[in-house]
Design a protein that fits this description.
Layout (H helix, E strand, L loop, with lengths): L6 E8 L2 E7 L9 E10 L2 H9 L1 E2 L2 E2 L4 E2 L3 E9 L10 E4 L2 E2 L5 H4 L10 E2 L13 E5 L3 E3 L6 H19 L7 E5 L3 H13 L3 E5 L3 H10 L3 E3 L6 H8 L4 E6 L4 H10 E9 L12 H7 L2 E4 L7 H9 L9 E6 L3 H9 L7 E5 L1
Parallel strand pairs: 13-14, 13-16, 14-15, 16-17, 17-18, 19-20
Antiparallel strand pairs: 1-2, 1-6, 3-7, 3-11, 3-20, 4-5, 7-8, 8-12, 9-10
Helix pairs in contact: 3-4, 3-9
């Protein structure tokens, strides 16, 4: 008879409230499932939306709830139909898809009609727990050269890769990344991996701009200290080909419209906290701008792992803080308020 484990997890219990409690011991539901011992979880901006406001759009937290979706771990048990084996270390794609709807059949797994996502209210509990069950399809073996922290970073990097893939050809283009948190930085890394281009980057925090310069930005600016739109247009008088908005703020969306040349493209990577944003429609129409929304990632975790393992991108500089599971409440407070120069916080279980 299977002996039930004691499983600790970090639960959201209210707005800006986190408690460490005992969670149910997860059990494999299919022959393809694997039981994982979670080793590390990244603190993501979307987690902060749930922490600060209890919702993203119509996804509303019902307390108590476990968040977290950037994760890596070790296989403890593998079902008889799983290609994985106990002891393997894996990076995890947090998206579970049906594989049968029109979106999946069209290769658009990230917009699956019946998708379930880790740490998403009404879908799946998150990964801030000692044990987790996932389908084998979501688990990618990592080479011995990768740390668990690097494996976790394959998830945000995969979003950067998908974002750049949606933009199609970026080599030789004049580009801005507005908002240099982890997703903005991962977008920059994906751009650098895709080929030579000129990248202007902005953020409100100097420590993030310093890190962005180390990652390869050609120019950085802080909107609280200078008119970044005027400065960039002084250098690129005809405007930019592409702007990746990675802050989810009305101010940066407005800046993007001003910066783009006629025929340019705005890629919306950031997640606004509110339900609505607005645009200068007259300016957008005259320039005939294209808006590209970005929905997570689509089959880009494996390429992200390969880029990190081959040393073509360096994600280590983004990991600025490390915490234990018992320190999750403090980690969320620091991340929510952007304190102590945090870029990416990592929780070790």
């Amino acid at each position: 008879m299977r002996k039930e484990r004691t499983v600790k997890a970090a639960f959201l219990t209210g707005i800006r409230k986190v408690e460490i409690r005992q969670a149910p011991d997860p059990v494999r539901q299919s022959d393809d499932d694997v039981l994982l011992r979670i080793q590390a979880v990244g603190v993501c901006g979307s987690d902060m939306h749930y922490y600060r406001t209890g919702r993203i759009g119509n996804l509303v937290v019902e307390y108590p709830f476990i968040v977290g979706h950037e994760c890596a771990g070790t296989v403890v048990e593998a079902g008889p139909k799983s290609p994985l084996a106990a002891g393997q270390c894996v990076a995890i794609d947090p998206l579970v898809v049906c594989g049968q709807c029109d979106q999946c059949l069209a290769g658009r797994f990230h917009t699956c009609r019946k998708q379930r996502f880790l740490g998403c209210p009404g879908q799946l509990a998150g990964s801030l727990a000692e044990y987790l069950v996932m389908p084998s399809r979501c688990c990618y073996p990592i080479p011995d050269s990768l740390t668990f922290d690097q494996a976790v970073m394959s998830e945000p990097l995969s979003i950067g890769l998908w974002t750049v893939k949606l933009a199609r050809r970026t080599a030789g283009k004049k580009i801005a990344v507005l908002g240099c948190g982890p997703i903005g930085m991962c977008t920059l890394l994906a751009l650098r991996a895709a080929g030579p281009c000129t990248v202007y980057a902005t953020d409100l925090r100097e420590e993030r701009l310093r890190a962005t310069r180390r990652l390869g930005a050609d120019w950085t600016g802080n909107p609280t200290r200078q008119d970044v739109v005027a400065e960039i247009l002084r250098l690129q008088g005809d405007g930019l080909d592409l702007v990746f908005e990675a802050a989810g703020e009305q101010e940066t969306l407005d800046q993007a419209v001003q910066l783009l040349r006629p025929g340019g493209t705005l890629a919306m990577v950031g997640i606004p906290e509110g339900d609505r944003v607005s645009f200068d429609v007259s300016n957008m129409r005259r320039k005939e701008l294209t808006i590209q929304n970005v929905r997570r990632q689509n089959e880009c975790v494996a390429p992200a792992i390969e880029l990190i393992a081959d040393g073509r991108v360096n994600v280590d500089a983004m990991i600025t803080h490390r915490f234990s599971l018992d320190e999750t409440a403090g980690a969320f407070e620091i991340a929510a308020d952007y304190r102590d120069g945090i870029v990416k916080g990592m929780i070790h279980l």
